[in-house]
Description:
Blueprint: H1 3-13, H2 17-32, H3 38-46, H4 52-61, H5 67-80, H6 84-96, H7 103-112, H8 116-129, H9 135-141, H10 149-161, H11 168-173, H12 180-193, H13 199-203, H14 218-232, E1 250-252, E2 255-257, E3 261-264, E4 269-272
Helix pairs in contact: 1-2, 2-4, 3-4, 3-5, 4-6, 5-6, 6-8, 7-8, 8-10, 9-10, 10-12, 12-14
Amino acid sequence: MKFLDKIKIIGENIQDEEHKTSFRQTTQIILSHGISSQKSMIDAVLDSKNPDDFCVELCWALIHFPRKIAIPAMKRILSEESRISIKIAACEVLGFFRSKSSAPIFIKIAMQDKNTEMRRIAIYNLGRILDGRAIRPLASLLEDPQQDVDILIETLETLAYLNARNTISVMIGFLKHPSAKVRFWAIFALSHLGNLTIIPHLEKLLHDTEEVKGWWSVAKEAENAITSISARNYVVGASPRYIHESTGVLVQEGRRIPSSKKHCPPHKRKHPRGVRGCECGPTRIRT
């Protein structure tokens, strides 16, 4: 099947009318530039003579292509392209496919790239594909006292989705960060990862009325986190706030019940929270 026939079929299979219109416009651009194959399309993106806007448009068009075509294309663009606007588009498109084979690329960008926006997008994508290989390098980003605020925020959120409980002690320190945005997302992360022993730290922020643009106040997020943690750790017949001071476990009728475990109806047994596919894990899933 010819390349242009494939493009026509792809366009017809797009359900969303807005996306279909956008892809139709991109098809016209492809035709006007005489692009007749997948290779020539990628070569056109990498051609420094072509305008950045045109190359970015071609990158986004590939989001509608089959995975076996789009993923290798985006990886090639990220490895060979130098123009930042095109690299950002390729990074965003590659993350859309949620392929675990892309994790090493995103980790490298997150740790080494000089552009903050590229790093932020790469960290965000690591939270979408949920690859555990990202936990250790991302945790190291929290240890840099000069770290950019946007990088901190994205890292805190992604580590929550990755169920990185080994970072809880570090995250608690960010509850005192001078930026309200960082405090807000540290609370969000701890609400997913923490047990009842986290609540005293969160209670200190119940009077922090500073607002975070696009969301709500730090105090409201702290209140929501306390409610979420309490409900998740509730044990019938025991106060959800009764914690043994030295062991950090719930106590009920003389029995010790580890706060890191609860009864899970779908699995019909007790197990550590956050088992993949279990409702005990994080509930805010990325789109």
